[in-house]
Amino acid sequence: MNTCEQSMGIDLSQLPPGTELEDGGVWCQVLNRVQDRHPRPTLFLDRDGVIVEEVNYLSRPDDVQLIDGAAQVIAAANARGVPVVIVTNQAGIGYGKFEWRDFIDVQEKIINELDHQGAYVNCVFACPFHEKARPPYQQHEHRCRKPNPGMLEKAERHISILKPSSWIIGDRANDLEAGFRFGLGNGIHVQTGHGSNLQEQDAARSLTTSNFQVTSIPSIADIFSLAEFFK
C-alpha cells in the first residue's frame, strides 16, 4: 500500500469490480452498465434516509435496514429501463468515524438486500470530502459534495441522461439542490431520515422553479401515488 492509499485507508487493488476512487477519493462504481447511449430518464437516489434507515454514520452491515418500498421503487425503475444511480455524501469517512472498508461492507449488504427483492442499481457515487474532514478529505466546497452536482456529472459519463425527465430523491434539500444545479427536471423530498425536519422541508420546497418541480412525500414508497412518475 503506497502513501496515498495509506492516507485514504484502503488498498486500491482490493476495490470491488467496476470501482475507482477519483479526484483523490470520490467513490465511482459501475455495477450494471446501461447497454445503449440513447438519452433516457434517470433516477438519482440519496442513500441514507431514502433507501436505508438513517442511523447517523452508517458503518455496520448489521445496521442496514431498507426503508419499506425502496426496493419496489428501484425494481419498478429497472423494469422500465430507467437507470438508478446512488449519490451519497459520506463525510463520516472524511471525519474518520469509519473507513472505506466499512463502506464497502455496508454497500455489499445493501446491494444484496435489494437483489433479494428483485432490484438493482446501475451506479454508486460517494463523496467523503468536507471542510471539517481530516486530510486528505479536508476541502471546502468539493465539486462532488452535494449540493454541488459533481457526482451526477460523473454519472453522465456512463449514462446518457434525459435531464428534464429525470428525478432525484433525497431527505435533505441539499440532495435536491444537486439535481437542480445539474439541470434535472424533478426533485422529490421524502420525510424519512432528516426529511422530518421542517426546515429541510421548507428549504426543499423553495427550490421549485419553472424548470425544476419539487414534490414532498412521506416516504419513497409513496412515489407510486404520483401519476407523473415514470410516465
Protein described:
The chain is of the alpha/beta class and 231 residues long. It has one domain (18-224): Rossmann fold, CATH 3.40.50.1000. Helices cover 27% and strands 16% of the residues. It has seven helices and eight strands, in the order αβββαβααβαβαβαβ. It has helices spanning 3-8, 70-79, 91-95, 100-116, 150-155, 173-182, 198-205, and strands spanning 19-22, 26-30, 43-45, 84-89, 123-127, 167-170, 186-190, 213-217. An eight-stranded mixed beta sheet has the order 1-2-5-4-3-6-7-8. Helix 6 packs parallel to helix 7 (198-205). The longest helix is centred in the middle third of the chain and has 17 residues, at 100-116. The protein starts with a helix and ends in a 14-residue tail after the last strand. The relative contact order is 0.17. The model has no long low-confidence stretch (mean pLDDT 93).
List strands and helices in order, with pairings:
Layout: H1 3-8, E1 19-22, E2 26-30, E3 43-45, H2 70-79, E4 84-89, H3 91-95, H4 100-116, E5 123-127, H5 150-155, E6 167-170, H6 173-182, E7 186-190, H7 198-205, E8 213-217
Parallel strand pairs: 3-4, 3-6, 4-5, 6-7, 7-8
Antiparallel strand pairs: 1-2, 2-5
Characteristics:
single chain; 231 residues; alpha/beta; Rossmann fold; eight-stranded mixed β-sheet; globular
Q: How do the strands of the widest beta sheet line up side by side? A: 1-2-5-4-3-6-7-8
Order of helices and strands: HEEEHEHHEHEHEHE
Number of helices: 7
Based on Cα principal axes, name the global outline. globular
Just name the CATH architecture.
Answer: 3-Layer(aba) Sandwich
| Structure class | alpha/beta
The total tally of domains equals 1
Main beta sheet: strand number and arrangement? 8 strands, mixed
The CATH topology: Rossmann fold
Q: Under the CATH scheme, which class?
A: Alpha Beta
Uncertain runs = none
DSSP strand (E) fraction?
15-25%
Number of strands: 8
What's the end-to-end separation, in Å? 49 Å
Radius of gyration: 17 Å
Helix percentage:
25-40%
